[in-house]
Amino acid sequence: MKKIKNSKLFRSLANNSFPKMVCLLLAIITWFIVMDNKNPLLETVYRDVPVELLGIEQVENRGLIIEQKSGDRVDVTVSGRWRDITKLREDSIHLSVSLDTIVGKGTNKLIIDRRVSASGVSIISLSSDSVELSIDAIETVNKPIRIQMEGSLAKDLELGTLVYKEDDIGVTGPSLILKEIAYLQGQLNLSEISISTTEHINILAYDIEGNVVEGVELETTSLAVGVPVIGTKTLPLEIITEGDIRTNYRLTEKVANLDQVTIKGNTNLLGSITEVRTKPVSIKNADKSFETMLEVELAKDIILVNTEPLSGKFTIEALDNKRFNIPGKDINLLGTDEKYSYIIDPELIIKLEIKDVRDAIKDIDEKDIKLETDLKGLGEGDYSLQISVKGIPETSLFSVSELPLLIEKKGD
């Protein structure tokens, strides 16, 4: 061996690559010439050839879906003469299975149909003669909805019962996946909510471990949720009465033990309420003061939160009369016109009767009373005019006689 390596021929071949390449090329050409002349029968293998599934659309139209498949790519052994084999392309090998026989869910083993669209070549064998398909049904089932709260309302607010139309939502998908779904859930963030509102939240499907389930379609992915927020409001209390007290008596005061009360309810309702009214208390034919318990009138879903019972005190007093005779000449005439003379009988006495409770009427003095009438726009003629009374308490009732008046045009 050492002598061969040291020979001149070996060193020449080892140091000259060009002769090597020429020799290799000549060997290949010679091989092709020999093979082409002899054209021997050969076998070759095409790896990982896809199997076409025929009729997928019909399967889906039956409400089915291919859940899993195996054997849909196989190795194909073909046989043919050398010349035909060298011309064969992989896309000339056609493998397929028909799905026409699939009518329901389950496992189906389908024989592979084989065909070669090239002359002189045939398929000897496949690494697998069949395709195994796991078929599932597309179904729709209703799944319950959960609303998960995030954050919290302000400390003076409470959350009422959430309102949404659907207790469950239809979910469509393969039956095996549908079985994984434990519930549907949406997230509701309370931290930004201060009044009652409607929130639209996204709904997803979850399994029993809280993982999102993919591969299904929800009937709706957005749910409108009514979020009632409960708050409180402190308002003045107004006592309401009904009926008329006895003649010559007056209700001079009505007062509750509380000036204000606190109510509780939906913030949307509270916003429009400005006072709290009691249920009507009857004072019909009353002629003396009394006390009674009070009840309030509240809108639906609004409640009173005061712990102290409500009571009202009603003060009723008898009316007294006081009469005055006032000279007609003391009446103040308003709106006079210099063109006219206004004539009042110098003997005229205007009778005035004032009615009020004793404490209000006892201090009324004639010198404080002012009678007046408005003559604006009146021309010549005899008139009986209404008289207005000033200087008496606003609560007082009065009756006063009319003013007879003659208006004449002054002479030139």
Task: Jot down its keywords.
4 domains, mainly beta, RNA Polymerase Alpha Subunit, Chain A, domain 2, single chain, six-stranded mixed sheet, 8 helices, eight-stranded mixed sheet, rod-shaped, 412 residues
SS class: mainly beta
What is the multimeric organization of the chains shown? single chain
Whole-angstrom Rg: 55 Å
User: Stretches where pLDDT falls below 50 for ≥5 residues?
Assistant: none
The whole-number mean of residue pLDDT values reads 88
Shape: rod-shaped
Query: Strand fraction band?
Result: over 45%
Number of domains: 4
What's the total count of β strands? 33
Q: What percentage of residues falls in helices of 4 or more residues? A: 10-25%
Any idea of the CATH topology of the largest domain? RNA Polymerase Alpha Subunit, Chain A, domain 2
Q: Which CATH C-level class of the largest domain is it?
A: Mainly Beta
Cα(first) to Cα(last) distance is 171 Å
CATH architecture of the largest domain: Beta Complex
User: Can you count the helices?
Assistant: 8
Largest sheet: 8 strands, mixed
Describe the structure.
The protein is mainly β. The protein has four domains: 129 residues, RNA Polymerase Alpha Subunit, Chain A, domain 2 (Beta Complex), CATH 2.170.120; 89 residues, RNA Polymerase Alpha Subunit, Chain A, domain 2 (Beta Complex), CATH 2.170.120.40; 87 residues, YbbR-like domain (RNA Polymerase Alpha Subunit, Chain A, domain 2); 91 residues, RNA Polymerase Alpha Subunit, Chain A, domain 2 (Beta Complex), CATH 2.170.120.30. The chain contains eight helices and 33 strands. The strands form eight sheets. Strands 3, 6, 9, 11, 12, 13, 14 and 15 form an eight-stranded mixed beta sheet that branches. Strands 10, 16, 19, 20, 23 and 24 form a six-stranded mixed beta sheet that branches. Strands 18, 22, 25, 28 and 32 form a five-stranded antiparallel beta sheet that branches. Strand 12 and strand 13 form a beta hairpin. The model has no long low-confidence stretch (mean pLDDT 88).
